[in-house]
Write a structure and sequence with these properties.
alpha+beta; globular; two-stranded antiparallel ribbon; 9 helices; four-stranded antiparallel beta sheet; Ribonuclease Rh, Chain A
Length: 215
């Protein structure tokens, strides 16, 4: 009986977590902090990106970490799609060197930017400011061949080049044993990094991680 109750409690806790994570809508500007998501482009381009013929995967670009997005986040769950209006072309055009393609910029505005409480141009300036605050460790800026590492090693490398950034303030995510993203939590005013237990729990924890080199 005790074991049954323990299992039920765990299932309910997981269900509650999933519901919070899938929250849709919300009041623009009402959130606790930001998550800057940096995607490892070579892994995306080794699979679905190549299949889709994404301009992100043009071999001449040699992209490594790219900006996926800046996401308003709550201590539990996150708001999304707070408004159905798209960003005007002029605002999207300013993101050419920020996102790997403008389609992603528009998607990120609709899904996350509309919950920031900012106008499109101001939101994208905030994305740029957040991205400029994060340095990429040198081993990942000049990677020329496939390798292996661990999530903990990646976290330590980011912490070494970003003063104040600690493991509980970020998450290294994986897909099928390969590096997918590094997600870094920032205060709402972007003045510093901050702990984010829910984001940290999303990290891959055990075993080696494959790091795909640009093709």
């Amino acid at each position: 009986m005790r074991l049954g109750r323990a299992v039920l409690t765990a299932v309910l806790a997981l269900s509650s977590f999933a519901a919070a994570a899938q929250e849709r809508g919300g009041t623009p500007g009402t959130f606790d902090f930001y998550v800057l998501a940096l995607s490892w482009s070579p892994e995306y381009c080794a699979g679905i990106g190549q299949e889709r013929g994404s301009p992100q995967c043009d071999p001449a670009r040699h992209l490594r970490f790219v900006t996926h997005g800046l996401w308003p986040q709550n201590e539990r769950g996150y708001p999304s799609s707070c408004d159905s209006r798209g960003a005007p072309p002029a605002a999207i055009a300013e993101t050419g060197d920020l996102y790997p393609d403008q389609g992603l910029a528009q998607h990120e505005w609709r899904t996350h930017g509309t919950c920031s409480g900012l106008a499109p141009a101001a939101y994208f300036r905030t994305v740029r400011e957040a991205r400029d605050k994060v340095a990429i460790p040198e081993p990942l800026t000049d990677l020329s061949r496939d390798g292996q590492t661990t999530a903990a090693s990646i976290e330590r490398a980011f912490g070494a080049v970003n003063p104040g950034l600690r493991p509980e303030m970020m998450s290294v995510t994986c897909r099928r044993g390969a590096l997918q993203e590094v997600r870094i939590c920032l205060e709402k005013d972007l003045r510093g990094f901050r702990a984010c237990p829910e984001i940290d729990r999303q990290a891959c924890r055990f075993g080696p991680i494959r790091v795909t080199a640009p093709r």
